[in-house]
Amino acid sequence: MPQFIKNDIVSLVDDAPLHDLGESVGPDLRLGELLGADGSWKETRLGYATAAGAPALRAAIADLHGVGPEDVVVTVGGIHALFLLGYILCGGGEEAVIATPVFPPARDTLVSVGAKLHALRLSFDNAYQLDPDALAHLLSPATRLVSLASPQNPSGVAVPRATLEKVLSAMAARCPGAFLLLDETYRYAVYGDDSVVPSAATMSPQVVVTGSLSKCYGVPGVRVGWAITRNKELREQLVMGKFSTVISNSAIDEMVGLRVLRKADEMLGARRQRLGEGLARTAAWVERNRALVEWVRPDAGALCCIRLRADAFDSAAVARFYAALSRRNARVGNGDWFGDDPRVFRVGFGLLAPRELDAALDVLTETLHQARLRAA
Question: Which of 3, 74, 83, 141 is 20–30 Å from 214 (CA)?
Answer without folding.
Answer: 3
